[in-house]
Prior knowledge:
By secondary structure, the protein is of the alpha+beta class. The protein is 24% helix and 46% strand. It is built from three helices and seven strands. It has helices at residues 14-21, 27-30, 112-131; strands spanning 2-10, 36-40, 45-49, 55-64, 69-76, 81-93, 96-107. It has a seven-stranded antiparallel beta sheet with strand order 1-7-6-5-4-3-2. The model has no long low-confidence stretch (mean pLDDT 97).
Amino acid sequence: MATASASIDIPASADQVWQLIGGFDSLPKWLPFIPKSVISEGGRVRTLQTADGEVIIERLLSFDEAGKTYSYSIEQAPFPASDYVATILVAAQGQGARVTWSGRFNPKGVTEAEVEAFFDGIYKGGLEALRGNFPA
Length: 136
């Protein structure tokens, strides 16, 4: 099983960051390459549309408001991976917050290194976009 993980420090409190990203339907608020999200099944499934029109369907697996974390799986996506499970975690870090986005998955049609690099790029790019919402 392949893995990828990225973290970033944000100059805002963990509560402030979680308020922006903690909702399972909140991706369009902070992730520019996901401009649309539609929630279904009582908030447990989100259907995302990418900036280039691709559709991604994800299922919420666990949610911990107090721990500021949630995990989700991908049910449908144009990605070179299967059995994808990821977690987003917001934790206090000094005067600010540290956000970690990590996942595990199996490569599909590519090497393990290629799929790890693919998701590493998504996580890092997404977290950089998130930090842009909290100017120092």
